[in-house]
Amino acid sequence: MSSFSGLNTATTALWAQQRGLDVTGQNIANVNTAGYTRQRAELQSVGGNAVPAMYAVSNQVGQGVDADKVIRIRDGFLESRAQIESASTARMTAQDATLAQIEQAFREPGETGIQAKLTAVFTAWGDVANHPTEDGARTAVLQKTATLVAELHTTSANLDKQWTQTRDSLDTLAQDVNAKTQSIADLNRAIKRATQAGLPVNELADKRDGLVMDLATSIGATSSPGDDGQVNVSVAGAMLVSGVSAIGIRAVGTEVPAEATATDPAFVTDPGGTRLALGGTAGGALTALSQTIPRYQQKLDVVARQLADQVNAVHAGPPMAYDKNGDPGGPMFGSGSVPAVPVTAANITLLITDPTELAAASFAPNGTNASADAGNAAKLAAMAKADTGVAVAYRQLIVDLGVEASVATSNLKTQTVVAAQVDASRESVSGVNLDEEMTNMLQFQHAYSAAARVITTIDETLDVLINRTGRVGL
C-alpha cells in the first residue's frame, strides 16, 4: 500500500468513526423520544481492486471503511407480537370498562340500588300486614313502590345511555383510523421516494410504525413488509394500506339500543362495504354493543317483568284479594301502554295511586268497617324470601355481573403483564440504552484518535521521504 493510499484509508477511518459518533449522539438525544428506534452505523471494510490489469495486479490490502448505511435496530417478530398483544390488551380494557360502567349503573351494593328499594317495598308490606287498617302503612307501600319503579327506570336509562355513548364512539374511532391509514400511505410514499434516492428514512419509518401500532390498539391491525421500505397494513383479512394506497372504515347499523343484534352495529370497509371482524378497542366496543349491555338490559327487564307478574298475581288473586273498601284487588303494575305491551324496566308503571286500593286482605270486610285481615299483605311481604321470588332473581343478576366483572379484571391484569413483557423485550432490542451508547462513544472516540495518529505517522513518513531523501550528511 502506498503512502498516499494509506492517507485515503485513514481518512475513511476518520469519517467512519465520526459517522458512528454522530449516530451515537442521535441515539442519546432521543433516549426519551416516544417511538424512536435505536440506530447503528453499519461499518463495512472496503476491499482492494479484485480485477487485475492487463500487465499488472493490485497488491492493496484494502481501501479503508465505509459507513454510509445507518440502520434501525428492530426485531420483526417482536414487533408483530407487540401489535397482537396491544390489540388484545385494548379489547380487554374496553370490556373491563364496559362491565365497570354497568356496575355503576346498578349501584350495588348500596342504599340507592334496586336491591335496597325491593327490600323497602317488602318491609312496607310487612308493616301493612301488622297494621292493615292504618292508612300510613299503606301510603308507605305506595311511596316505596314508586321509588322502586323510578329506580328501575333510572337503571334502564343508564344502560341505554351507556349503549348510545359507546355507539357514538364508533364514528369517532372510524374517523381516527381513516386519518391514520392515510398518513401511513403518505409516509410509505415518502419512504419509497427517499429510499430510491438513497436518502435516510429512519425517522419517517419510526413515525409510520408508531401509527401502525396505534391501529393495532384501535382495531387489531397487523403489518407486513413491502417494497422499498414500505409496509402493508391489514385487519381481519382486509388490506387497509397497500403501499401508497389506503382505504377507510365506517360504522354501520342501528343507533337504537333495543334493535342491537349479534351483528349490528358493525364496521365495514369504505369503499366496498365489506364487513370486518375488528379487534382492539373497536372489537371491545362492538362486544359491548351487541352482547354485554343488551344482555344485562334483558336481565333487568326480566326482573321488572317478574316483579310485575308475581305482585299482580297475589294482589289481584285468585284467590280473591280485597282492598280497604272491600273491592277486589286489581293489577298493581303494568306497562303504561295502550294496547298493552310486555313490561320492561323502562316502561313498568305503578297503576295504583290510592292507598285504600291496596289489596291487603284475603277476606272481604263485614259491613262498612275495613277488614282487619292482612293475609294478602303477609303473602306479599313473604315474597322477599321466596326461593323463586324477584328478590332472589335480582340478587342472582348482581352476582353474575360481579363474577363477570371480576373475571374481566383478572384477565386484563394477566394480559397487561404479558403485553408488558413483550414491550420490555422489544425495548431491549429497539430502545436506547445509555450505558451501551456511552461504550460505543468511547470506542468511536479511541478509533478516531487512532486513525488520526495513522495520518500523523504517514505525514511524518512523507516529510522524511520528500524533504530529507538524498541529502546525505545533513
From TrEMBL:
Record has RNA-binding as a keyword: no
Entry superkingdom: Bacteria
Domain Flagellar hook-associated protein FlgK helical: 99-333
Keyword annotations: Bacterial flagellum, Cell projection, Cilium, Flagellum, Secreted
GO cellular component, one term: extracellular region
Flagellar basal body rod protein N-terminal domain location: 7-37
A GO biological process held by the record: bacterial-type flagellum assembly
Name this polypeptide is given: Flagellar hook-associated protein 1
Organism of this sequence: Modestobacter marinus
Organism classification: Bacteria, Bacillati, Actinomycetota, Actinomycetes, Geodermatophilales
